[in-house]
Amino acid sequence: MNIERIELRMIAMPLVAPFETSFGIERVEEHIIVRVDGDGVTGWGECVASEGPWYSYETNQTAWHVLREFLIPLFWQKEIAAPQDFPRVAARVRGHNMAKAGLEAALWDWFAKANGKSLAQLFHRTQTAVSPSTVPEKITVGVSVGLQATPQALVEQVRNYLAEGYTRIKIKIKPQHDLELVRALRAEFPKIRLQVDANSAYTLHDADIFRAMDEFDLLLIEQPLSNDDIFQHIKLQRELKTAICLDESIHSVDDADAALELGACRIINIKQGRVSGFTEAIKIHDLAAKYNAPVWCGGMLESGIGRAANVALASLPNFKLPGDLSASRRYYHTDIVEPEFIVDAEGKMRVPTGPGIGVQVMPRNLDNVTLSSQVFRKGEA
Ligand code: SMG
Ligand code: MG
Questions:
Q1: For the residues 264-292, what does the mean pLDDT come to?
Q2: Contact 326 CB / ligand 1 (< 6 Å)
Q3: d(CA 377, CA 381)
Q4: Looking at domain 5-115+363-377, which of 3.10.20.70, 3.10.290.10, 3.40.50.880, 3.30.390.10 is its CATH number?
Q5: 3-state SS class at 20
Q6: Of 77, 211, 272, 371, whose CB is crowded by the most CB atoms within 10 A?
């Protein structure tokens, strides 16, 4: 891969509405955009770390530091032929999966464009769960609804999303704001596909709350217990009819193997950033298929750059459940790519078909949200 130039940009995009989870409230999304250039081709990637170490230990500052001081110099040192070779180079750095994934994503986009393929086509060629697999025109997507001031406000918010076409609703829960929310929603919408996400806010002492959720026919309970835990989740899953889905606890295909084999979960939320990139994400997708475990694509409030690549990933055959991939307007008034992502009346989203991520980055929009940037050139480091 003849990349000569890498650019990092810190961007800040205000959300259309605050997004509250068990660990805090987000109002503005700060992410790092990675741009790679070579042979007249440009690749774009998005690093999903955020301002603070709340969802994971990584922050934008740690990701920038690890990219600048370690990952970019390592990348210049080793010649690689394809994006799948990058994890071997990056493995010298322990952890920092989001930083790794940001650069790997830009390499995937560059490589796909250099080969005249869409990212979805490349991912389908790479996966081994089903062969041959063909890229669907559209995928079914869902929406993740943050904590609201009252259960009534949540019900109204959900009503609006259902009216927009979404057919799968995920709500955030936290201690003291859990069963009452599920109960209120089920009273109003007995049939919808509903799931909850605790973002690690509970312990095994709260098992009764999750046992009580069994009667509400949820698709899954996402990451109820501690963020790196497998063992306690095994104990909890044994007690429940409802499937546990792990998010924060899964950092690699090896974690996924342990969790599925040992029964810590029956479903996995795949976020490429959390697992160090699309190469590892596809490995988890393939592994889960062997266990007959469905996966779905998580979201980190990405801009259109990250969303485009996620939609391509979510088009793979074992992404059997709708992902946290919502319309651009659910997140931002103005995105940095065109065309914007839209959700149709059946709750579906088109998979981009153009080369690479298949959407255009709008330079003016990108400049408008850029806080700082730095350029790295081959041979300079
Ligand atoms: O991108 O639609 C989205 C957000 C999906 O709920 C979402 N993400 O734990 O799954 C999760 C959270 C993590 C981000 S919270 C800032
Ligand atoms: Mg989650």
A1: 98
A2: yes
A3: 7
A4: 3.30.390.10
A5: strand
A6: 272
